[in-house]
Amino acid sequence: MFSQGLEEAGLGEDVELHIKELPVSYSKAQELVVSLWKTFRPQLAVHVGIAPGCRAIMVEQSGKNQAYKERDVRGVCPANYCCIEGGPERIDSVIDMKSLTRHLRKLGLDIIYSRDAGRYLCDFVYYTSLYHSSGRAALIHIPTSGSLTATGRLLPSLKTIIQTMLQQIEETMCFSSQHIQDRL
């Protein structure tokens, strides 16, 4: 499985990596995501889901709060088909996925920018994470077929994508700190 390979490969000396497989259940997955944010308080949470029918890696800009009408493995939909009652309709990641995609394409990665994660468990988990982190989350959809599904191609691509996201977060934090200092 790619998660074990990513854990073995690591993301760098200064990056603490925690990999958790989420159940295909709205309520259980939501509980786990909230718990992970409370326990680890990460700089960034990166969620990886599968995208049947897609042959490229997709990075998702936004998580949506409504219209979760597909049943999970337990045969259940979220209450009112909603992720977070009273939450905003859409939350964007602090990662600029569009510029990330442009940069990674120049490096030769087969990657697609997306603003619609699909209104099933991946989008539900992503929205939950974005909501509990003030946008410090990312969702990467990986293909289920094509040449990218080979571990030898997928792992290096995921590693590059995640490292680039972390770099973007770090640059944003440095800019914010400098901006605050400039105002003082």
Annotate the secondary structure layout.
Layout: H1 2-9, H2 26-40, E1 45-51, E2 57-60, E3 62-64, E4 90-92, H3 97-106, E5 111-114, H4 121-133, E6 137-143, H5 151-183
Parallel strand pairs: 1-6, 2-5
Antiparallel strand pairs: 2-6, 3-4
Helix pairs in contact: 1-5, 2-4
Give your account of this protein's structure.
- Helix 1 (2-9) packs across helix 5 and helix 2 runs parallel beside helix 4 (121-133).
- The termini are far apart.
- The strands form 2 sheets. This protein has a 4-stranded mixed β-sheet with strand order 1-6-2-5, with helices on both faces.
- It has 184 residues and is of the alpha/beta class.
- It is built from 5 helices and 6 strands; from the N terminus they run H-H-E-E-E-E-H-E-H-E-H.
- The protein has helices at residues 2-9, 26-40, 97-106, 121-133, 151-183, and strands at 45-51, 57-60, 62-64, 90-92, 111-114, 137-143.
- The model is unreliable at 177-184 (pLDDT under 50).
Poorly predicted ranges: 177-184
Give the strand line-up of the largest sheet: 1-6-2-5
Q: What is the helix/strand order?
A: HHEEEEHEHEH
- Strand runs, count: 6
Strand content: 15-25%
In whole angstroms, the N-to-C terminal distance is 49 Å
Radius of gyration: 16 Å
How many helical stretches?
A: 5
| Helix vs. strand class | alpha/beta
Biggest β-sheet strands, sense, barrel: 4 strands, mixed
The backbone outline, from C-alpha atoms, is: globular
Mean pLDDT score = 89
Which range best describes the helical content: under 10%, 10-25%, 25-40%, 40-55%, 55-70% or over 70%? 40-55%
